[in-house]
Amino acid sequence: MGSVIKKLAIGLAVGGALVGITRALEFPFIFQMMFFGYAMLGAAVFMLLDAPSVKTMSGMKSLIALVAFYIVLCTVYISGASMWPQYDPEDEKGKIAKILGPKFAATQQGKAEELIARAKALDEQVKALEVRLKALGGDQTTKEPQTGAAPTTTAVATGDFMKMGEEQWQLQECYNCHKLKGEGGKKRGPELDNIGTYMTVDEIKLKILDPKSFMAEGFEKEWEKGKMPDKYKDLMEDGDVVALASWLGTFKNTSVNTPKPIKKK
Amino acid sequence: MKTWQRSLVAACALLALIGGVAYAQAPGAPPVEFPYTGNRTAVWIVAQLHILFAAFILGAPIFVVISEWMGYRKQEPRYDRLAKEVTKVTVILYSMTALTGGLFIFVLLATYPQFTTWLINHFFLVFAVIYPLLFISETILLYLYFYTWDSWKGEKKARHIALGVLLNLIGLVTLFVINGPTSFMNTPVKAEGISPQEFLATATLWDKIANYTWMPLNLHRIVGNVTFGGFVAGMIAAYMYMGAKKDEERAYYDWMGFVGNLIGVGAMLFLPFMGYLLAYELCDYDASICPYMMADQLSMFFEMQGAMIGLMFLASNYYIWLSMKRIEGVEKVRMTILAPIATLLLPLVMTKVMTDYPVPDPMSLAFLLPLILAPFTLGRFIPYTVSARTVIKIGFLMVVVGDAIWLTPHGFVPTGAKLVAELELPSDWNFLALMPAKNSAAFTLVFVTVVNYVIYNRAIRQGTIVWGKIDFASQFVLIFLAFSSIWTMGLMGAVRSLLRKYYHTYNLLPDFTAESFTPTLSYSAWWITGITVVFFVVVSFAIIVTLRPSDSKGHAAEGTPVPARAK
């Protein structure tokens, strides 16, 4: 028992020291606790090393011990996994619907479902008109049903277009490799806050569709290895690429050291 | 299990397979909707169970035949007994592999008929000819191997071992063949400047099989299967040890547990590197897979993996510690002081070297090799030594440090998009979350385990093992290792499948169903635990059915008297 207390005391002392040091080094609180946890794990390991031997069991006693052991393992693994931060699938569902929506609409099943949806909408309109007709009296002549929504504008407002571009940045998860507005990026790709100064919208579009067309200065290895995926020409609609390129083209923050692109093709 | 019982299981498997194929013939049949679990989880459960059984029946024969050969060469009956007992369990689990395989195809066809048909069309020769032929050949060979065990002995033993080698070769080819479509779903063939659909239309079957991750997956699964087989053999031994009534039975199963654990740990030492190779190829195929794994949706799955591997290394080293306790004269064993010094320095030096000279720069080896080899090369010239106990305790300290480095995340968030300063590592310490640090942690765990086995080897040469007198806690360690390795296998299997994101086949065939999102780690853990428990129930049943009756017959001729001497 004395040995256990001694190891526990050492674990607490080491844990306390780690908390103190990490606090001084401005680690966030959760990391301080994590380091404390490591110290306690170490103490538990050393307690286990010097623990007295377990006597040999047999028969029902060993069976009960075995079942209890499995229950403990299951509980620890499920609760352990549940204690880590959990990704919310709802965050992804909307993204997936936006990315796969146009692809699904292009399939036979998608087209069929769209036709069914249209038929249903028309059916509802007819029913609504019938109700209105009945309310107005049967002798009244039927009006031409409105065939469409409000008159469409020929051009998408610029603001909406830019929003579309920003949305594509999020949907295609460009932020995983590129830093923009101080967010995202892990140095896998160049920071893009000043990209509008160096490249035209058409050039950015070309770079997205053919990643080998330009190389950022200082990213020779990444360019050689083809780190930027050559898949967006297959995954993105043309309008989406134009929107993303146009949005990126507006970034002309000269205070940020965006590497100079070099034309390769 | 009797022949008629095995035949019944095989018939059920065949029925499920034929039923599935017949169902697929129905034109325009809508997909089945599985209640409660949903379609994706239903496929997940059956596929994972099938892979667990398949991993055992492919992994176990590798060390079974080695054990049989060692028994023949050393003329030690206990090696032969170990090989035969594991084969008995393998035969029953083979039936379960066939049953779950048939069920897997049935569920896949019922839930994703269009995708399944598409995949079968692309690998028609594999699914219709090569794989069935290999499976039938393996079935014949396995049963032949098992049923000729007693008749092919003495002069015919070499013929029996050769049959075992052939069984393994067929098993390996089966694994390689089925890994073709599996890896294709993650990394389908592609070429620069051509759309995947266009390239696929012109690709040959070999192009499709020999994709980016095919060979890394083959290597990863071979090593994983041996690890898994070794730990399950350890678990079989633990069960039998717990149920043993005689000292000589305990002595034998203590030895078997040790050998099973040695195989499991020996193969596990290579697993981090095989996993790294697979991840490297995945990232090389498409760089956007990397952040999805390590920094985004699946990052916490990797945290859990780190925790599991850390625990497994702790447990395997704890087993060595408990094994050392039953060696008489262990207190005299000493080791050069360079061993604990190299262990203490390794994480720090390796992180620095690998940051300055990233893999595969040969300069990193130039610095690291002398450090790693120093205890074994220079050690004998250094007069200062420390006790085995001290070396192992320092090793445990460094296993905890290695675990800590492996587990430390860049941020406590499930996705990079939610990263805020209060949950992020300070930038000066960010190196702790990068690959050089993670590699150094993995290597420290491996190095400590190797050093501990070197000490163990020295201890059995200088002292005497008293088989059957091991601390009873060690049996729980063996079971823990088997359970944890299977759980980790389930976790990483889920990760590999989820890497396809919202595609059945990455970037080629989208999954338009409502279930194509990334599930939470907690949800996944529930199912992984459930699958592991089901697998354990079946394996436990198989062990009881096959090995308990043999207990009454006795094995007097095989065991050495207790206490058994290792020398």
What does this structure look like?
- The complex is a heterodimer of chains A (265) and B (567).
- Chain A has 3 domains: 1-51; 97-131; 158-263, Cytochrome c-like domain (Cytochrome Bc1 Complex, Chain D, domain 2), CATH 1.10.760.
- Chain A has helices at 2-24, 29-49, 59-83, 89-106, 108-136, 158-171, 195-198, 201-209, 220-225, 232-235, 238-249; strands spanning 214-216, 261-263.
- In chain A, helix 4 crosses helix 5, helix 6 (158-171) packs across helix 11 (238-249) and helix 8 packs across helix 11 (238-249).
- Mean pLDDT of chain A is 87; it is low at 140-155.
- Chain A is mostly helical and 265 residues long.
- Chain A is 62% helix and 2% strand.
- A two-stranded antiparallel sheet of chain A has the order 1-2.
- Chain B is mostly helical and 567 residues long.
- Chain B has helices spanning 3-25, 39-74, 77-111, 113-122, 124-147, 157-186, 196-202, 205-209, 214-243, 247-268, 271-285, 289-294, 299-325, 338-356, 362-377, 388-407, 435-462, 473-498, 521-553, and strands at 327-328, 334-336, 385-387, 464-465, 503-505, 509-510.
- Chain B has a two-stranded antiparallel sheet. In chain B, strands 2-3 form a two-stranded antiparallel sheet. A two-stranded antiparallel ribbon of chain B has the order 5-6.
- In chain B, helix 2 packs antiparallel against helix 6 (157-186).
- Classes of the chains: A mainly alpha (265), B mainly alpha (567).
- Chains A and B meet through helix 2, helix 3, helix 4 and helix 10 of A and helix 12, helix 13, helix 16, helix 18 and helix 19 of B.
